[in-house]
């Protein structure tokens, strides 16, 4: 699932603007209802119905608005997930560079210049160090991928909220002049109430989908933790031992004479 930080920030700006517009539209409902109820041709019974419908619309609208605002409390999470995914990929690059630098092809030891226990310990530890660095690179890559996927899922969820918000604003935009005209009726009120019902259903479905997705991602993160504590590349949970206790012996034997030769 792809994620664009710039597009998502633009989406959040649109949602913020939409919430302000929705608030403004709701604030206009009481005045529109009062104007409609005061028309000369409106009977007292119809006037009461218009005022009552206006109150219902404002009540439902504010509940929906509060609900949307509450859902937006975690709206910045996908951005932080994206940034963390970027950092983990940087770690992957660093670790893969270390793994490459620690291969036997790059750490060549000429037997004619250095021999003995120190040389053997040095050469023997190369592959273990390279393997440990490779494991770090793999874990970093997996972590980055899961974070980026979570960021994309979060963005898709908030795209749904943006669509819901736009439909509510459109419904109110139609309802306000209709109510103020004095011909606003139960079918007109139903237009907005239907949109409010649509909002609850769509948002509820989106939340269920997001929850299921994040549950699977939690499982993936547990698996990543399992990789991190796997001792196959990190004996006893530590970096492979470089066998430094044997590095003190850099002796090359030539006949009966012993002489020390430190590697360049």
Mean pLDDT: 79
Distance between the termini: 50 Å
Strand order of the largest sheet: 1-2
Largest sheet: 2 strands, antiparallel
Give the helix tally. 5
* Rg computed from alpha carbons, rounded to a whole number of angstroms: 33 Å
Number of strands: 2
> From N to C, what is the helix and strand string?
HHHHHEE
| Amount of beta strand | under 5%
Task: Explain what this protein looks like in three dimensions.
The protein has helices at 5-37, 44-71, 77-101, 117-180, 186-228, and strands spanning 251-254, 257-260. The protein has 264 residues and is mainly alpha-helical. The chain has a two-stranded antiparallel sheet. Helix 1 runs antiparallel to helix 2 and helix 3 (77-101) packs antiparallel against helix 4. The longest helix has 64 residues, at 117-180.
List keywords for this structure.
264 residues; mainly alpha; two-stranded antiparallel sheet; 5 helices; 2 strands; disordered C terminus
SSE topology:
Blueprint (H helix, E strand, L loop, with lengths): L4 H33 L6 H28 L5 H25 L15 H64 L5 H43 L22 E4 L2 E4 L4
Helix pairs in contact: 1-2, 1-4, 2-5, 3-4, 4-5
Task: Summarize this entry quickly.
With 264 residues, the protein is mainly alpha-helical. It contains 5 helices and 2 strands. It has a two-stranded antiparallel ribbon.
């Amino acid at each position: 699932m792809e994620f664009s930080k710039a597009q998502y920030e633009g989406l959040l700006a649109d949602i913020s603007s939409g919430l302000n517009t929705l608030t403004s539209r709701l604030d206009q409902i009481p005045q529109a209802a009062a104007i409609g109820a005061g028309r000369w041709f409106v009977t007292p019974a119809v006037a009461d119905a218009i005022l009552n419908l206006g109150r219902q619309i404002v009540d439902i609208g504010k509940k929906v608005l509060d609900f949307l605002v509450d859902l937006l409390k975690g709206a910045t999470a996908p951005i932080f997930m994206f940034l963390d995914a970027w950092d983990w990929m940087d770690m992957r690059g660093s670790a893969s560079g270390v793994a490459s630098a620690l291969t036997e092809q790059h750490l060549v030891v000429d037997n004619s210049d250095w021999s003995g226990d120190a040389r053997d310990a040095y050469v023997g530890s190369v592959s273990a160090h390279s393997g440990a660095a490779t494991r770090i690179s793999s874990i970093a890559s997996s972590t980055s991928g899961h974070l980026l996927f979570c960021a994309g899922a979060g963005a898709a969820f908030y795209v749904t909220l943006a669509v819901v918000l736009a439909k509510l604003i459109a419904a109110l935009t139609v309802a306000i002049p209709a109510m103020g005209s004095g011909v606003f009726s139960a079918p007109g009120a139903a237009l907005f109430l239907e949109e409010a019902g649509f909002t609850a259903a769509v948002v509820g479905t989106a939340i269920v989908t997001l929850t299921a997705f994040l549950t699977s991602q939690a499982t993936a993160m547990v698996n990543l933790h399992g990789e991190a504590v796997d001792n196959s590349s990190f004996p006893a949970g530590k970096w492979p031992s470089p066998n430094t206790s044997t590095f003190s012996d850099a002796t090359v034997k030539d006949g009966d004479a012993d002489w020390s030769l430190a590697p360049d």
